[in-house]
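Q: Got a minute? One more chain.
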Amino acid sequence: MHSDCRPKRLLLASYAALLSAGICVGYPAEAANNPGKTAAPTVAPATPPSPGLMPETLRSEIHDVVIVPGTAQTDQQLTGSYGKAQPGATGGMVQGSRLGFPSVGVGNATVGISIPELILPGMLAGSLFGTAKQELQDFRDALAKDLANAKDQPLTNSRLALHVYQELRGSPDVQSHLFAPTVEIPKDTDAVLFVNINDVTIDVDGDDAVLKTTAEISLRSQSDGTTLYRKWFYYQDKDSLGNWTADDNALWRDYTNFALDYLGRAIAFDLFTGVDLPQQLQPVQTDTLVVGRNDVWEDSSKSRAPTLAWKLTLPENNTDYPWADSIDESKITYDLEIFDNHHPVYGQQGIADPSHRLGYGLDACKTYRWSVRPAYHVNGDIKYGQWMRSPPESGTGTGSANEGKKASAAPALIQYFPTLKIDCHAR
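A: Always. Here it is, folded:
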């Protein structure tokens, strides 16, 4: 592959300036920092992300972890976007995130750091392949311009690392710390978790556009620098181009918030806090909550502060988690969250009973989405189950939290949460 620093069509002015400075699309930052050195192009991994959670044997060995925003330099040969091999009907794929990753030394390792002013304009400023519609080009340019002018960009390594840290902060199983890439890591740290947003892509199929954010984690031993665990995560949502571009791309800004929320949760769950116990959770009717006659996932209330309730059913003789048979159900606690289509509006942790009355009133004549997750207390440890979601339309499995169907109707993260419609005359 030859270095190609020729300007592409539809480039931002700031991006063209980067090209003229010798920074090339599709190459690791190492090539830009070392003009005389030829770096291998970034490539997609040959296999999809590993299924399941990080092995319990590895979890049990890590009691102190430092979270660092960025990616280990030794991984750069393998970086890239998983699942981007096939473009959409009009080929709306965009990349260039390596513009934001110069290399610096950190403790015993070298990592790539995010420059907020460069990373997302770089991601979205690459040329569109194929015969992209003008509407798509305008959308891409509008997003890139919005991000280039933003003082506080939404999708950065630092923000994702903060989300992971917040998810791990309350865990009694592992002590977590959040370090800047330039801070030296203590030698007695068990492992270093590098958290990296690789890219954002736009994939167009007919009148619909799919936005996809891909992140990568690399867990490394602090003692010898070996990679203990590595995995890809992604979050995507779909909608018409018209909806994505409405109200000055408001749906895009909602997307970035939900993408960070999902990725932070998924990384923490996979590595340290979660168990894939095949639990069953579903809403239960109360004096102020009415579940749907034909669908228990469609709930309504004539109270602005209803009492929400749910039922948890645990499996028997679980071979994957033998400790599940010894769970004392009276010690299970729950976390509750309520969302509108833009952000969380209510949350409560450590609920002792399978019901909760809201502490304040929601807005009347509005529909929300709500869910709970169980926290299993076993031998002094806490392991979280999955959030309550309805099964997908096929009736098998659990609804996906990272592949949306229509972002304007419900973001992917909450699309399978039970609905909560507050009556227009509710008090």
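A: The longest helix spans residues 241-273.
Q: Perfect, thanks.
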